[in-house]
Amino acid sequence: MNQNRFQANKENNQTLLNGKNQRMIQRPLIIKELSQNNSLILEKKPSYGDNLEPKTMQFEPSPITIVTPQEVTEYQSTIYDYLKHRGCIPVAQVEYMIKQRDVSIKMRSILIDWLIDVHIKFKLLPQTIFMTVNLIDRYLSVQEITRQHLQLVGITSLMVICKYEEIYPPLIKDYISVCDNAYTKEQILEMESMMIKTLNFEMTVVSCYVFLEYLQLKIRMEPKEFVFARYILENSLFDLNCLRYGNLILVTGAIFLVNKIFKRGNWKSGCEQATGVSEVVVKQCAKDLFHTMQKAEALTLTALKRKFSTLEFFEVSKYRIEKAKN
Fold it and tell me: How many independent structural domains does the chain possess?
């Protein structure tokens, strides 16, 4: 009887994990940069659909009309102060790859691309991929490895983070399987022990996705804008230059860029007060994220583009980003 009840609960939970929210379909757009005034515009492709003319939206911290227990409004300011304290710290040194004699930046990008595919296969939570890449960077910044062990570091980092973040983390045999049996159970557990000791048991950080979700409660972006900001942040995982910014600054940079792209008011009208980050600080980060998005167009890695090309994510990876010609 207990076995039947356990099986029923497991099936119900799997059904919830497999469920998808139906969202409205938007047509692809071409995003261009105006070289004269450094602003962004949306150019439509001749296609189907309704009118997508930019509309004015003030980024005022709107009062919460529907209070849910998850928003814990009475503690939001205290929570945000703590997140800011933890999230303003850069996660790793930008130049750490110089110390790695047998591993290159390209190999790191290939590893992240593969981990995104694994993340999709296991149906893991959004913040898991951010924290996994963070753990990889922090470990590689203090420990030199060989290229034969790079994938081992990646899959072990994913396993460690899943233990923190996932309700039903994959089994160790699943990790071995996605690696095509390149590593044994003993090798993965040994690498896990080495990483934990090397990083002094500091496994988790405040991820970009946590900041993005929290600021969404205050700024109230539209669903498509939220997804586009998430796409920008996941693209930043491939760019080591983005390590110079703390996670909070990266998120505010992504929101600033979305604000410019969709022409939603201006930063000082509400975002500066809601995030606590000034426009002067966030502008350079937004510019670097824009260049990262441009470079992503030339990448041959496809996992992230394929992930965000579905209707579930409003097909945002199909947007083309380029500079406008004079």
Answer: 2
Model pTM score: 0.78
Identify the CA nearest to 312 among candidates 253, 230, 209: 230
Identity of the residue numbered 145: I
HSE-up (13 A, CA, CB side) for residue 176: 11
Q: Which of 165, 198, 231 finishes a domain?
A: 198
pLDDT for 196 equals 95
Indicate if 194 and 211 belong to the same structural domain.
no
Mean pLDDT (the chain, rounded): 80
- Closest to 16 measured CA to CA, from 121, 167, 213: 167
Q: Is residue 191 part of a domain?
A: yes
**190 and 230 housed in the same domain:** no
> What integer pLDDT is reported at residue 267 of this predicted model?
87
* Distance (Å, whole) CA 20 – CA 22: 6
Q: Is there a contact between 257 and 48 (Cβ–Cβ < 8 Å)? A: no
Distance from C-alpha of 187 to C-alpha of 294, rounded to nearest angstrom: 38
Residue 28 and residue 224 in contact, taking contact as beta carbons nearer than 8 Å:
no
85-142 pLDDT, tens digit per residue, is 776 666 788 889 998 999 999 999 999 999 999 999 999 999 999 999 999 999 999 9
Q: Residue 313 is encoded by which pair of tokens? A: 């994510």
CATH number at residue 144: 1.10.472.10
> Quick check: 57 pLDDT over 50?
no
pLDDT digits over 72-95, tens only? Answer: 778 878 888 888 877 666 678 888
Residue 97 β-bridge partners: none
Q: Which domain holds residue 139?
A: 93-198
Of 145, 166, 198, the domain-final residue: 198
234 phi/psi in degrees, rounded to 5: -70, -30
